[in-house]
Amino acid sequence: MLIAGDIGGTKTELAIFSSEAGPHFPLAQEKFHSADYPSLQAIVKEFLIRTKQSPDKACFAVAGPVIDGRVKTTNLPWVMEEAGLARALNLNPHSVHLINDLEAIARSIPFLRPNDVQTINAGVGVPKGAIAVIAPGTGLGESFLTWDDSSYVAHSSEGGHSDFAPTDDRQIRLLEYMRTKFDHVSFEHVCSGIGIPHIYGYLRDVEHMAETPDVGKLITSASDSSIVIINHAFVTQNPSKICSATIDVFVSILASEAANLALKVLANGGVYMAGGVVLNILAALQRPAFMQSFKRKGRFAELMDKIPIHVVVNMAGLTGAAVAGLDSSTRF
Questions:
Q1: CATH assignment, 113-313
Q2: Where are the domains of the chain?
Q3: For every residue of 219-243, which 3-state class applies, written as one string?
Q4: Which residues contact 107 (CB under 8 A, 6 or more apart)?
Q5: By CB distance 3.0 to 4.6 Å, which of 47, 133, 166, 201 could disulfide with 171?
């Protein structure tokens, strides 16, 4: 019995898995609002009391770099250690593992079923070719997979914190605006849940796009203003122009960085996009503008057009943590 978790800056998902049922069929599952708890241990203990389960091993996917079994979460004030988690959960120290959340998503890719993805660009995938993974959630995660003799191997990355590189005049002005707020402007600052309000602020304050008073109040008072912006960009009746423009800029930046990652690892096996933000803006990703930005790589435009692009619509982080935890051959 395995307890697996996907620990994000906004929500934590926990589930119990068995080797018999496999990674797609949890025996129990629940979501928690991460910021409501002082630690992962507190959430896990509450979950196990509710489910009345006694797992004998654990694997948690965490948003942050895992080094020597320890991680400080990027968008939460938590520090986690495998040894401390094992003690708190009364488990063998060698049976508790922490992995980067994007490594977990990458681990899930070879196990995805047809209904787990929506295809943005069919492309022409190369068998056993490298695969790129990009996931805008609260922050921006990136990872990739390479083929190793008989199977894919997942690699973690902190590429989301690399320097934001604008690709047009508007994005250049956005970068200038962001530099008044941050010494280092990363892709995460403009291509994630925490980045969407920054784009909105730029359009309002620099380009002076009109802000609907009611929408402005909702954004100011919301605990997650990115959701408010997304919702008002996609409402059927009278969508907000500034919210729609925010999503258009976001999609352009996401397409450009997804293409950057694809070039860096030569992802002719495909690009997979995951994360809560992607699911909420799926309709925008299916418009021609996404592929236009993705292919804007000069002499490599034809190569970019051949790369398959998919959106993962299931809980890839949780599935990947379960895959890693259930596989006795996994190398942590």
A1: 3.40.367.20
A2: 2-107+316-326, 113-313
A3: HHHCCCHHHHHHHHHHCCCCCCHHH
A4: 99, 154, 320, 321, 323, 324
A5: 166
For residue 73, name the pLDDT band (cuts at 50, 70, 90): confident
As a dihedral over the C-alpha atoms of residue 252, residue 13, residue 310, residue 292, rounded to 10 degrees, the angle is 0
Dig out the tokens for 302 from the structure: 């034809």
Segment (H or E) for 264: helix 241-265
Question: Hey, which bits of 66-162 come out as E strands?
Answer: 70-72, 79-81, 96-100, 117-121, 131-136, 140-148, 151-157
12 sits in which H/E element: strand 11-17
Residue 315 has pLDDT above 90, yes or no: no
**Residues 57-88, buried b or exposed e (16+ Cβ, 10 A)?**
bbbbbbbbebeebebebbbbebebebebbbee
What CATH number belongs to 2-107+316-326?
A: 3.30.420.40
The pLDDT-based confidence of 63 (bands split at 50, 70, 90) is: confident
Kindly give the pairing relationship between strand 140-148 and strand 151-157. antiparallel
